Amino acid sequence: MADDIVEEDTALPEEPVPDMPVTGEEADAGGEEVPDTPENGSMVPDAFIRDLKTFGESIRKSPGLIEQIRDVFEYHLVDMTDRRTFSRIVNALTMILGHSSTMVVATACHINAAAFFIDIKKQVGEDEEEAEAIAVLQHLTALYGNRVQEAYALSVGSLDEDWFTADINTFRREGEQSWMIELHLAQYNGTIAHLKMTPESLFQLTLILMNEVKKLPAEAFDQEMISRYGDDIKSFATRFSLRTDDGAPPGYA
Question: What's the whole-number average pLDDT of the chain?
Answer without folding.
Answer: 79
